[in-house]
Amino acid sequence: MSLLSVSGVTKRFGGVTANKGISFEVAPGELVGIIGPNGAGKSTLFECVSGFYRPDEGEIHLDGERVTGLSPDVICRKGIARTFQKLRPFSGMTVLENVMVGALTRTKDVKHAREQASEWLSRVGLSEKADSHARTLSTGQRKRLELARALATEPRVLLLDEVTGGVDQRTIPGLVQLVKDLHARGLTLLVIEHNMRVITAIAQRIVALYMGEVIADGAPEAVARDPKVVEAYLGQAYVK
Length: 240
Ligand code: ADP
Ligand code: MG
What we know:
Layout: E1 4-13, E2 16-26, E3 31-35, H1 42-50, E4 57-62, E5 65-66, H2 72-78, E6 80-82, H3 95-103, H4 110-123, H5 139-151, E7 157-161, H6 172-184, E8 188-192, H7 196-202, E9 205-210, E10 213-218, H8 220-225, H9 227-239
Parallel strand pairs: 3-8, 3-9, 6-7, 7-8
Antiparallel strand pairs: 1-2, 1-4, 4-5, 9-10
Helix pairs in contact: 3-4, 3-5, 4-5
The protein binds adenosine-5'-diphosphate and magnesium ion.
């Protein structure tokens, strides 16, 4: 039985079909990687799963329950949380307050939300920044903040859009370890990641997208060697 099921999801923007009949399953406790060159449709897929976009066709189920087209806040309360590729902290708030926003989806008690938020900040290694304004954080720290805010909503499935994207090389191992730890504690994750070395090291399975379609789905080593995947990435290299 899968925890998350994506079935035939299609999303169009005018003449562009960003997602074309995408189907795959995520089992409870699994860490599934989503790869594909720029413009493949990875972020659009996350927008559909988290309710920010309504798919034109197809269905999304969480633990057997249809969530297609529900609003993001309803989907979040049902247990799907996400981080954004373009980081979106509430910049006028402190780091702790940002995470409290996540925690307040589960409790109305502000004191309890503050305690929960503190715990999540400590879990992601940001405790010392709790009272700083979010806008003062480095990119790596903002990624951790986004993670803490998403985790504070107590998700059953966490969607991460390019955790290591845009951060400096030294920051990557810490972020990767954090994701590994969350997975080891039983969290189900769907992770978009550009860095092939990172994703083959952490994912149990990889779904590869190209021009809106699934071109491979399987074990990381097999997907990384799949001729269609190699060609998709080569194509991008030649265009650049
Ligand atoms: P990825 O995350 O894999 O780089 P995206 O999902 O962001 O890819 O984009 C897939 C395709 O859909 C691209 O061609 C992109 O230009 C297009 N697209 C994404 N979002 C929008 C939007 N809001 N309006 C119009 N086109 C979009
Ligand atoms: Mg993207």
